[in-house]
Amino acid sequence: MTGWLAGQLPRVMAEDPVLNGFVTALEEVAGSVRDRVDSVEHHLDTGLAAPEMLQFLAGWLGVELEPTDPPEYQRSLVREVGRLLGWRGTRHGVESLLEAATGSRVTVLDNGGVYGNDDPVPPPDHKVVVQLDHTGHLSERQVHRILEAELPLGAQVELDIRFPGGGS
After folding, report:
1. Is residue 153 scored above 90 in pLDDT?
2. Contact indicator for 108, 129 with CB cutoff of 8 Å
3. What is the pLDDT at residue 62?
4. What is the pLDDT of residue 156?
5. Within a domain: residue 29?
6. DSSP alpha helices (H): ranges in the chain?
7. pLDDT tens by residue, 110-145
8. Around Cβ 99, how many Cβ atoms within 10 Å?
9. What is the pLDDT of residues 108-118, one digit of tens each?
10. Position 23 in a domain
11. Range of the domain at 20
């Protein structure tokens, strides 16, 4: 039986045992590479990725997964971070990311905004207030680490947890 690559050789080359053996060996190597390339979408799909690949994807997106987090939570968080990539550092992005991470309602208050030439610009205020119902299964420290990664350097965070210890 002729393989996919050896089958494309001209007859005179296919009949040469050395050349045919060489092409067959290349075919085996290329076949394993081709199988990996064909399945790359499954490795990058957060619903199907192996735990090691999920860790890699999380690191690539700048998210730290805790080994003790449930697998479905990890998959959901990586999926949400990927979806929100273009919103990073914005109020919407921070609120959505924390909602995904904590399962809590989140409100971010700051003086940031877009102002036109004739609009009055408020004085700079580096304070960002983050209000959430609870931290879910995350600790306050973990929430602060997420905020440090998402907010501008120098932002002073005030974390307001409405129901401490009320998470899942």
Report:
1. no
2. yes
3. 84
4. 92
5. yes
6. 11-14, 17-38, 40-44, 51-61, 71-83, 91-102, 140-150
7. 887 778 899 888 888 889 999 999 999 888 998 998
8. 16
9. 998 877 788 99
10. yes
11. 10-41
- Per the CB < 8 A criterion, the answer to whether 127 and 158 are in contact is yes
**Element holding 130 (H helix, E strand):** strand 127-132
Q: Which of 86, 89, 84, 83 is nearest to 128 (CA)?
A: 89
Nearest Cα to Cα of residue 69 among 131, 163, 136, 133: 136
Which tokens belong to 14? 């296919």
The letter for the amino acid at 93 is: G
Strand ordering across the sheet containing 127-132: 106-109, 127-132, 156-161
Does residue 129 lie within any of the structural domains? yes
Domain assignment present for residue 83? The answer is no
Task: Tell which residue, 44, 39, 66, 62, has the closest CA to residue 54.
Answer: 44
Indicate if the pLDDT at residue 94 is higher than 90. Answer: yes
52 or 35, which is more confident: 52
State how many domains the chain has: 2
Angle, helices 140-150/91-102, rounded to nearest 10 degrees:
150
Residue 36 in this model has a pLDDT that exceeds 70: no
Residue 92 one-letter amino acid = H
